[in-house]
Model the fold of this input.
Amino acid sequence: MSVLNEAEIKKTKGRALHGGIIALLLIGIPFQLFPFFWMVSNSFKTSLEIIQIPPTLLPETWNFSGVVDTFAKYPLWENLWNTIVLCGGVILTQIPISAMAAFSLSKLKPKFSKTLLLFFLGTLMISSQALMFPTYIMLSDLPIIHVNLLNNYLAYILPSASWGYMIFLFKGFFDGLPNELMEAGKIDGAGAFRMFAQIIVPLSKPVFAVNILQTFMAVYNDFIMPLFVFPSDKLWTIMVRIYTAQNGSFATWNNIMVMLTVATIPILLLYFAVQKQLVQGISMTGLK
Amino acid sequence: MKLLSRKKSGNDQFAAWVFLLPALLAFLIFKYYPILLGFFISFYEINIVELPGKFVGFSNYSRAFADPDFYAALRNNVEFWVIGLILNFWPPIILALLVNEVRKGKTFFRMTYFIPAVAPSIAILVLWKYIYSPDYGLANAILNYFHLPGLTWLNDVALVKWAMYLPGLIISGGMSMVIYMASLNEVPKEMYESAMIDGAGVAKRIWHITLPFIMPIVKVMFIMDLINRFNEAAVPLVYTGGGPVGETTTLILYALKSAMNNLDYSYAITLANIAFVIIFIITALQMKLTSREK
Done:
């Protein structure tokens, strides 16, 4: 509930306070949006105008040569494709694995359920960065089969398939579904597989949507792990490309701005398409 | 009810384990095995061609505890944490309190203030790096406009950490805001009403009702923030690569550099293990403290 109540807000003092809050929030908005506006605007400057003192807000002339130049210098399409493959690969492995495990723990309740939950969630204690080094060594020479997975999409996809947070989110949602559903299914003679596919999954669309999105964003934003497991630039994602380009001296600032725009616009569009579900999902599954 | 919840048949148990199997395998192979491997390797002088290399006992650990760069990195983590608390921790709370009061267009404000959270973080970091550029950057252009001398921002030892976290003050964490708002939404109306009967003004209600109500979430966020600050690597890596003169090299970044630049994997893993132990101790202490309060 709001702190100000309905009666208060109709009085002069309450109305002034409410108006002040709205004004303050409106003033803040341009700051939130400025980075996006500026990276797009900067993408259309020449390599000279972008290092001009003082900087211009909008390009003096809208110049497409920077965009053309950036795509010629860097294999951005390839990088975007790699990003999609990794996002898709992780979603297709991690989401089913986590949903199935959570379903089992929540509704089938095998022996040692509590210990198993701890087994999955305990891995959240150790940070992904700390695990990166041993994972790298392991991937360079997989135990038993002795295969080197580095420079293979699987080097990123397989370790990412296990994320305790996802099991936590799925289990939280499944726990909220009434157990009578399972009993009803059992009376109809449905096995666990049919119950999962035909009863639980259709009822859990919101949590699937939110989790797929969260995974997508986590993979899309990641750049340290892909940089690590893909020493050759063939499999680099757009984020790795941005990181290495801005770190080197080969790229001009307008090249980099084009990359930033290319990396940001798709995800912003995606956000506008699903923002309602996403924000509700975070409030729903978040830290409650 | 008793009849329905009869003992689970062996069939059910079997299905339960089939559903768990993929996750069990994935976690065993790609989480627990690397955790053990990391622990194991920290006692070796690793040789990537012929694993595991030479057993060296605790010497990787004693090397870390005698390494001034290790202590510098640890100090940087602590400073990042403190600066993060000063610049970045509280704005989402204030923002959530403000947006929560809006009557019409609450969704609009929540959506707009959430936008920065979906932007790829590296894109925003790189853009700010450009803004901080000493000669052609926007930050100095603004200072010059007000006839103030320009700063060197990311090259200034005293300023660099503040500059890195400053954007979080202006463009605040949309993700945290949404989480706080979910909690604010659950404060019961009756609590405010009875406080008003007692004559509590807006400020008193916020202080005595709203803040205590959302305090459990604030505590969780505080812990998460602490953990994130001790795992900090991406922000300084993009901005400065750890410089100037190691001023922003955090523990994990130091580990990263040992692995990538010097191929010193055993030391990198040892540093990461130490970071893990530190985080583990802090989290355990905090959990103990909060559970005692209840």
In short: Strands of chain B lie at 44-45, 54-55.
